[in-house]
Structures are given as structure tokens and as C-alpha cells.
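One thing: could you explain this record?
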Amino acid sequence: MYVVESKGGAIVCMLFSLFFLGTWPAIMTLLERRGRLPQHTYLDYTMTNLLAAVIIAFTFGEIGSGEPNFLTQLPQDNWPSVLFAMAGGVVLSIGNLSTQYAWAFVGLSVTEVITSSITVVIGTTLNYYLDDKINRAEILFPGVGCFLVAVCFGSAVHASNSADNRAKLSSFSNDNKTGEGAADISVSKETNLNIVGTKDLENGSEKAKVGSAGFLIELENRRAIKVFGKSTMIGLTITFFAGVCFSLFSPAFNLATNDQWNTLKDGVPHLSVYTAFFYFSVSCFVIAIVLNISFLYHPVLNLPRSSVRAYLTDWNGRGWAFLAGLLCGFGNGLQFMGGQAAGYAAADAVQALPLVSTFWGILLFGEYRRSSRRTYILLAGMLSMFIVAVGVLMASSGHRKS
């Protein structure tokens, strides 16, 4: 098998992982905003996510001179480590599933910041002790503290932006004499066509400007998950739950590959990163399939009911969902490859993915357009603190002894 041994190689893995893990949520969010059911998107995503693990196992896991390789390890008596890897896949799958709904309520940027920061605060601390303190504590934990501050900024950004949106909708309601507040606004198709903004030359109707009240109403009409009238606490609760799930998958994977608790029998080699990642992805796949098929027939958050047959015939955006699964799969694999070389605590620097997600959120979805000055100041503070935290965390990288 191929083994990443140098600190430089580990950092390269982390940088590619950072880009992949920051991009796939933007694709999933784009599909939800276009009206595709999250259950359909996630079923597509989870198939190619598993495919990425299989590709990594039969390439990196089979090339090079390192032993044992992927196929050699499959029949070995290494089930304690396998179970740790599969437990990590379970919590990651539940966390990813939760964020699908959190993105709709809280927005892509803030969801990624809060979940990633919780992951670092809890997961990095656990990995530091599991890795026998190979990372420099005097650098690592100030970085963890910066991530914790970023959580506070993220919550404040969400609260401020929500207040801005309520003000826009209330003003729109008063101007159009449709009621006293946002809750009374009709979000029917006819209402959208009466919103005057810029001409939509494609269909001849009027299209609202990005960030305006009309834009928010148009978005509500298109999207699969309806958020108007819902408490902001729903979104934040889902986000924090997802963050706790994410904080546990990396320590579980660490235990699977390094057996710090000495659960393997004498003479049985530790799981390689590639074998552990294969089992990790299989459990992630199984949980995702079971939960999403259940959600087809028993949807949550007032989503429309669907079926396996409806899913199989829904090709709208399927290629994008497949791409999201591949990006997430390769991103996770590269994170683990870097973590095995430089320490899983340092590899949590890939939780800088909100920097990439925020870029896509602003570029693709117009997040924070026409918001208040206070929201912009909080957003700048959140991103600045996040950049500092990531730099400090990477500086704590160590080197795992063979």
C-alpha cells in the first residue's frame, strides 16, 4: 500500500481535502434550493461516496511496498478495529444527513462554521490524547480556542442575518399591503410574478434582485424545505447536533487505525488507512440508505412524501449529486491519509472547509446580500477568527512514529 510519511505530503493531502470537503455541501445546497428532495439527493450522494472509498482502497491500498495491503487485511481477525471504523461511519452519516436540513434553516456558511468548530473543539481534543500528544499542545489548544470563538461569531451572524431577512419581508409586506409582517406574506407563484426587479429574459417574468425580499420569497417557493414561519432554534438545534456527530467520527477512525486501546490480538497488524476507510464508508452507506428510504415514506419537516419508484425516475440534478458524493469521499480519504502521517488532531485543520463553503454560499446563493452593516462586521470577524484558528492548528502538526 502507499503510505504518506512526510509532513509536507500530509499538508498536501489536507489542502486537497479542504477544497473537496468545502465544495460538496454547496452542490447539495444548490439542489435543495432548486426543489430537489433531500432524500433523493442524499441517496445519489451516498452511492458515489462509497465508490470513492472503493477506488481509494484498490489504488492507494494496493500500490507501493507497504504492508499489509487492502486485500490482505480483509480476511484477518481485526474486528475490534473494524467496529471502531464502522462506528465512525455511522456518526458521520447521521451528521451529514442532519446538515442537509440545517443548510435550509441556517444557511450554508453558518452551518459549516458551527459544525466544523464543534468538531475541532471536541474531536481535536480527543485526537490529541489518542495520538499520544504528538502535536504541540501550546499551539494546538489556542487554535481550538479560536474555533470556539468562531462558533459564537457564527451564531451571532445567523441571528443578525435572520433579523435582516425579517425586516426585508416586513417592509415588503407593508409596501404591498398584504399584511403586517412576514408571516402574512403569500408565497404563491402569482405573488412572485408580481415582484418587480430585473427582467428574467428566459421566461419573460419579473425576477427579484438577489438579497431582496422578493428574492427570499422566490427562493421559498422553489426550495424543497420550506423555512418561512419556522423557529430559528430548529436550525441551530439541528446544526449543533450535527456538530457533535462530526466531532466523534475522526477519533473513532483514529482508534481503528492505531488501536490505542489494544483491542487486537497479538500478531494482528493494525488496520491500514485504506482498509479502515472502506469499512467506515460501508457503514456510512448502509445507515444513509436505511434512513433515507425511511424518509421517502415518512418525511420530516413537512417535506412531501415520495417513494423508491419516484426516486429512481428523478434525474433532475442527479449528476451533481453523484459529484458531491465523490468529492466528499475523496475529501474524507485524504483527511485520514494526512492524519495518519501528521496526527489526526492536526488533520482537523481541514475543518477550515467553511472558508470554501462561505465562498460558494456568497458566489452561488447570494448569502448576506443586502444585509445590515452589523451582519457584515460579524461575518468578517467570524471568517478572520476562522483563518487564524486554521493557521494555528496546522502549525501544531507533528510526526507519527512508525
Remarks:
- Residues 178-205 have pLDDT under 50 and may be disordered.
- The chain is about 70% helix and 0% strand.
- Residues 17 and 89 are 17 Å apart (CA to CA).
